[in-house]
Amino acid sequence: MALSLYLLYFLVLAIVSIIFLNLFKKSNSKLPPGPPKLPIIGNLHQLGELPHQSLWRLSRKYGPVIFMKLGTVPTIVVSTPETARQVLRVFDLNCCSRPSLAGSKKLSYNYRDIAFSPFNDYWKEVRKIGVQELFNIKRVQSMEPIMYEEMSKIIDSFSESASTKTPVNLSEKFLSLTAGVMCKASFGVSFQDTVLNSERFNELIPEALKILGSFSASDFYPYVGWIMDRFTGLHKLRERSARDLDAFCEQMINMHLKKDKEENEDFVDLLLKLEKDQVVLGHEKFTRDNIKAILINILLAGIDTAAITMTWAMTELSRNSRLMKKVQSEIREKFGDKEIISLEETDELEYLNMVVKETWRLHPPSPLLIPREVKTEFEINGYTIPVNTRLQVNAWAIGRDPDAWKDPDVFLPERFVDSDINAKGQYFELLPFGGGRRICPAIYMGTKMVDFGLANLLNRFDWKLPEGMKAEDMKMEEAPGLTINKKHDLLLIPVKL
Ligand code: HEM
Ligand SMILES: *[C@@H]1O[C@H](CO)[C@@H](O)[C@H](O)[C@H]1NC(C)=O
């Protein structure tokens, strides 16, 4: 029974593929080169568990612009600073929309968010509000007390581990630090000691990220892929994840509606104000669904990325005692006597900032950025980039490009001495936040969370590898997902000064 359904499924796919193939034959434009395709699956079999790595290998064979078919979907990937500049600067306007994907549709209430919305009037206006009201410098400064509070909790817990010489699970602790900060800033409630700290909530975000990052047949086989998603159970998982996140947002919003006095204004307060004022964005009234979609964006985009950066930075530093000593002496010479280093003070830590940039070069948390969709045809290096193609920039490959970086495999923060390169999307060899119109709108917030977390933990503790472990034994593998974390949790022993 199941077998015959599979057969039917492949038959339908075959027909759809043939139709698509014929559509493409009509144009006589010159597509970028790429690996040979199989019928129906196209190049899907060439993507391993870590697609950014597979694509990097393919780009070394086929060049900086490659064309592939992922299922039936034409996909182009660029992998050098110059081709990224073409996409993100020169032809940004041709391709700054987002494709419709099953997971993102569900988790964004039909694209009523910022990250997955297509390029349209709604997106322009909601992004502007985000930049002006949610992600601005003033708002980040207003989050400082929250960051202090979360940081002192972590310092206390590490002091305890230090006195018993037990390793701490830094992968976990960084995540709970950023989750704590972002939850308090968004919902005004603290993550550790209230409703949020349930088993279920702890799983909500990783689960949603997994769904967004997982192979969904409907994204590669329009019209028919949804059948496959029913078989694999992905559909059910997606429904459940969306339902739980919805219930959670609903609960948070209701809590705010009951709140009588204006305390510290959080993200929910601000978004509720837009709803109450009956603001019109694009051509639609701003409603409860918009609020939820934006809150979910913030949870999914803001928590993992910063935590992952801190985990990789501490991993690289504990592999190299010279760099560790150097960054710690910079911090301690300036702020050694401080309980907690402030957000503003982290600006003075030049070497730490280089360490963070170098971490982003080798470990961009979201290595393929977020897929774009081409709306107007253009050309790169003489190759046609056709309409309705999915377009990705491989920031991970760019960080390892030997023409852009000397000894690209070596973690060397000093390479940024006397260099203007920063991570804000103006230098196409370093793109942890993407670039162009779709660049991460919260660069300042993300950077500050990372600088603050690292500066303080490096200031207050020395860090030792667990008993019997040597620097060269440290595992550097990546774990698959929408954001790329270290596969093996980082365990280190804090040593009190
Ligand atoms: C170290 C931390 C962070 C990193 C590395 C990061 C990285 C990224 C990347 C690579 C993109 C896609 C850019 C593109 O498609 O070209 C993005 C988009 C986005 N990020 Fe971040 N991000 C971080 C922190 C945050 C935080 C804290 C928030 C919110 C509070 C946030 C909200 C968003 C949103 C809303 C978008 C979608 C923008 C759009 O499509 O218009 N990010 N981020
Ligand atoms: C680190 O913490 C996470 C989250 O609590 C847990 O799943 C993981 O097993 C821990 N890792 C180790 C090596 O203890």
UniProtKB/TrEMBL annotation:
It holds the Pfam family p450. Its cofactor is heme. InterPro entries: Cyt_P450 (IPR001128), Cyt_P450_CS (IPR017972), Cyt_P450_E_grp-I (IPR002401), Cyt_P450_sf (IPR036396). It comes from the Eukaryota. One of its GO terms (molecular function) is monooxygenase activity. Keywords: Heme, Iron, Membrane, Metal-binding, Monooxygenase, Oxidoreductase, Transmembrane, Transmembrane helix. Heme binds at residue 440. The chain crosses the membrane at residues 6-24, 294-314. Belongs to the cytochrome P450 family. This is Cytochrome P450.
